[in-house]
Amino acid sequence: NAGVTQTPKFRVLKTGQSMTLLCAQDMNHEYMYWYRQDPGMGLRLIHYSVGEGTTAKGEVPDGYNVSRLKKQNFLLGLESAAPSQTSVYFCASSWAHTEAFFGQGTRLTVV
Amino acid sequence: AQSVTQPDIHITVSEGASLELRCNYSYGATPYLFWYVQSPGQGLQLLLKYFSGDTLVQGIKGFEAEFKRSQSSFNLRKPSVHWSDAAEYFCAVGFNSGYSTLTFGKGTMLLVSP
Questions:
Q1: B54 CA to chain A: closest CA distance, Å?
Q2: Distance between CA atoms of residues B88 and B44, nearest Å
Q3: Cβ of B106 and A42 within 8 Å?
Q4: Bridge partners for B36 per DSSP
Q5: What tens digit of pLDDT does each residue of B93-114 get?
Q6: How confident is the model over A20-39, as pLDDT tens digits?
Q7: CB distance A90–B43 less than 8 Å?
Q8: Distance from C-alpha of B101 to C-alpha of A28, rounded to nearest angstrom
Q9: Binary contact (A40, B32; C-beta < 8 A)
Q10: What is the pLDDT of residue B100?
């Protein structure tokens, strides 16, 4: 049982490049989330999804897009990366109103 | 909007001493509460959770937390800290209404001295 798997684990982008982070969960959870973690800021919610085909904005959605075409996958896209998007990105999944299970994170550096 | 406050950015505790990490939340509805731990370079692991019932909850690794509604607090405790407990600890809150998501505090870094 893999839980929540994020790919890639590390990535370096140049300013203006685009990329997609993939999150996959095998727990049949309805809810999926993307957070970013920055020093001293805790985890901040970027976007989330409460079911297949649905997405919603979180606290810091600007510069990111998401898609949930399949229940088990939640993609986070950066269309034009900026240095301010250098961060560690965490995907998580859960049932409604229960604890979230986290992936191992993706460390993204934008130069 | 809901918010979570962890007033201590860093705490240093001697190995074998007791530990208490503070967490306060703000919102009017009945919360459900969590403590997560993060070791360097790792994801977040759930330590314990509170949904309802007994306000003192037991978690993994010998941790416990107490929900105090009157103080809007959910403090994490451990009677005797081990060097392996050094990590960052996050409190999180959610609410049993609508499409509630978890809101995290900014974390408390625990350092354990010999």
A1: 17
A2: 9
A3: yes
A4: B46, B90
A5: 987 766 678 899 999 999 999 9
A6: 999 999 999 999 999 999 99
A7: yes
A8: 18
A9: no
A10: 74
Q: What is the DSSP letter of A99?
A: -
What are the Cα distances from residue A13, in Å, to A38, A86, B4? 17, 9, 33
Is A65 within 8 Å of A14 (Cβ atoms)?
no
A42 lies within 8 A of chain B by CB: yes
User: CB-based contact (8 Å) between A89 and chain B?
Assistant: no
The type of residue at A36 is R
- Would you call B94 and A90 a contact, using CB atoms and an 8 Å cutoff? no
> For residue B54, which of B62, B46, B64, B66 has the smallest C-alpha distance?
B66
Tell me the pairing of strands B64-68 and B103-104: unpaired
Rg (CA), chain A: 13
Residue B7 preceded by cis peptide, ω within 30: no
Residue A53 CA to residue B33 CA, distance in Å, equals 28
